[in-house]
Specification:
359 residues, alpha/beta, Rossmann fold, seven-stranded mixed β-sheet, 12 helices
Amino acid sequence: MSNSDFHEKPYDAGTLTKLKIFELYVQAWIPVFVSRPEPPFLELHIFDLFCGPGTDSAGTSGSPILILNQLRSYQAKSMAGWSKVKIIVHFSDSSDGKIGELRKLLNTPEWRIPGVHIDLDAITFQAALEKHRNVLRNKRAAKLLIIDQFGVDAVKDDVFKQLITFPRTDFIFFLSSSTLLRFHEHPAIKIKIDRPEDSYDVHRAAFGWFQKLTPPHAFLGRFSIKKGSNIYGLIFGSQHPLGAHKFLQVAWENDEIRGEANFDIDRENISPGDMMLPFEELRPKKIQAFESDLEAELRKGIMNSEAALIHFCIAAGMTCRHANPVLQKLKDEGVLRCDFRTPDVRRMRELRPISFFTQ
């Protein structure tokens, strides 16, 4: 389907999964900045840079409406910092027609949300990045970018390197990972991923490409989406572990088995109910491998801080709660001690002096 007629048909199941993840992350992101009486930033900017007309042909809400729904919900809750923060939502699309449809849709009392300014612009992705460059580089403003590109053309290496270095910025972009593999030799394809042994792993391979471009202080996340025989996916980026952990929570909410796909990516044929049974072979290999690796690292006595444990979890694509069984096991064995059950990513700035090991 071409870019122009994408919204002229009902969204398919894969698109609905993608939109759900976008919405859930927006839902998790907003209260970080408006829930406290003294907000950490006085400006919030949400960018939807391929926004479309707002709905599909059946009237199902697209990303602009989902974003505004979340903002309207939090405004109604009268959160402590809401009135102290300037909130701007930037909707842009290269299509004049789609922006015109969205403008008409939003030009009703329903979408006049107190404290929220809406910026609509018929502009290309690259032009939008240039237009908003000062905001994106502003260390005193928090930013979230939703980049629902068609295919693989918009977020190339140079753009990704910009995104991952913008301060106080989280971003999620869509990627047609199967396209990277199918047209691997085409000169227009600049992202050259290695061909995986299993076609299900193609978005993991794409994620590996972007990992190589990511500085040590930043965090990435991924989610694979299967549509028919093709694999697509989302890449998440942030310079803060809290952002990365919130994305992982959203991913695990959408995939209870491995936290990274809307299909059986490891071909294990395990359902969430199976994991309740007392059979080791019905526990996902990803969880087993994580627990084994974490236990080995802790037994070495090297991982001696809560912060290091949190970084280990995020790098493995796991939430902090996944560390609980290993911590409890090693506490019971007298191998380590710590005064928490679950690492708390929100307290990392406190740099709590926790020692894990006692011999």
